[in-house]
Design brief:
single chain, alpha/beta, Spore Coat Polysaccharide Biosynthesis Protein SpsA, Chain A, 13 helices, globular, membrane, Glyco_trans_2-like
């Protein structure tokens, strides 16, 4: 894996909360060195502890990690695990790593410390930690970073798959802007993205505990963590300035993860897009409905919420506790129960039409002085180094 960010950051510690990065690794001897070198290059790496969970490794991952950490400014903590049948999946490994990191913060009297996670086959930018802390100082309690595929590895993928990825990336950027304009959320406004990738997540320890920790799902544990945080109204920022790159391999370590997705799509080009990409009409309806519920919840308007529920074919009394329930939990309940809010798969052949329709809709929603959404993976002003991967 090529080194994608220059290793030029200062070694001088900067003020800030103690932070622990949890990294699950299974037979990643070829990539863990670059991952740790990227963490060593953080501007305030001396405030960082890296907790590496060695998940049944049978290669030289541990030896490589020790060698790369020997001269690093951060502290390396190793944990070993052999996951039993039924729990041998990415969600359990990341969950154990993050729980161990959380416990470490608590033992060291850091109850308000920062818990982060990345992947052993990923590299974070030199300002990753500093940019994350800046978002926290701005009011966020959790930060989802922007993750791109390794451009050198992306170039080796079939041309048809790369074209599809580029179209999905363009549509994802348009949907991110559309969501921000139809349902603006304080502290997570435009520009933003919609990713929830384990290659770049951060959360304050109290918020992590409040949400119940990371859900132990075989696939999609990163998205499930953000959903759990939102269910208790934790302030989540989808920050385009918090950056990382990850492997674009098609033979990965996690069943059902990004590598499996790429391999399947290369062999079956007609497979539906990622579930975050849905037809424009459905997406716009979803966000308008959420914005209305957000307003009704803020006002404690039970009568209005009952009418809102009925319009979505929900029993009106489901919103009876609107004043006492977190907004996030109410929305997730409604989204799961309403037949009008069920996910609608999007086929790749429909992407060009949906992209054109999204551009037309956004042209009427943007303020007069606002420019178009960027072509980057998260709608940023400049494109990232490679298309955005679907979260595992």
């Amino acid at each position: 894996m090529t080194v994608l960010f220059p290793q030029i950051a200062s070694r001088t510690p900067s003020p800030g909360d103690k932070a622990v990065v949890a990294i699950p690794a299974r037979n990643e001897a070829a990539r863990i060195g670059a991952c740790l070198d990227a963490l060593a290059a953080q501007r305030d790496a001396a405030t960082l502890t890296v907790l590496l969970l060695l998940n049944g490794c049978t290669d030289a991952t541990e030896a490589v990690a020790r060698a790369h950490a020997a001269g690093a400014p951060f502290r390396l903590v190793l944990r070993h695990a052999v996951l039993p049948p039924g729990q041998a999946h990415a969600g359990e490994a990341r969950g154990r790593a993050m729980d161990a990191a959380a416990a470490l913060l608590e033992r060291e009297a850091q109850p308000d410390g920062l818990l982060l996670t990345t992947d052993a086959d990923s590299q974070v930018a030199p300002d990753w930690l500093a940019a994350t802390r800046a978002e926290l100082r701005s009011g966020a309690d959790a930060v989802a970073g922007r993750v791109d595929y390794d451009p050198a590895e992306t170039a080796c993928l079939p041309a048809a798959l790369r074209q599809r990825m580029a179209q999905e990336d363009s549509y994802a950027a348009l949907l991110a802007e559309l969501e921000a304009r139809l349902d603006p959320v304080r502290g997570d406004g435009w520009p933003r993205h919609r990713m929830a990738s384990g290659a770049s997540l951060a959360v304050r320890l109290p918020a992590y505990r409040r949400a119940g920790g990371l859900p132990r799902l075989p696939v999609g544990e990163d998205r499930a963590l953000l959903a759990a945080l939102r269910a208790v109204d934790v302030r989540v920022r989808h920050a385009p300035g918090v950056r990382a790159v990850t492997s674009c391999r098609t033979e990965g370590r996690a069943t059902g993860g990004a590598a499996d997705t790429l391999r399947l799509r290369a062999g079956q080009p007609g497979l539906p897009c990622d579930s975050l990409l849905e037809p424009l009409e459905v997406a716009a309806m979803r966000w308008r409905a959420r914005a209305t519920l957000r307003r009704l919840h803020a006002a404690g308007d039970e009568a209005g919420a009952a009418r809102w529920a009925a319009s979505l074919l929900l029993p009106p009394d489901v919103m009876r506790q609107i004043k006492a329930s977190p907004f996030g939990a109410l929305w997730q309940m409604a989204e799961a129960a309403s037949p009008l809010l069920r996910p609608v798969p999007l086929l790749p052949a429909a992407l060009p039409g949906e992209i054109a329709a999204a551009r037309r809709l956004l042209a009427g929603l943007r303020p007069a002085a606002a420019g178009p959404a960027g072509s980057g993976p998260c709608g940023s002003a400049s494109p990232g180094p490679a298309p955005t991967p679907p979260p595992p």
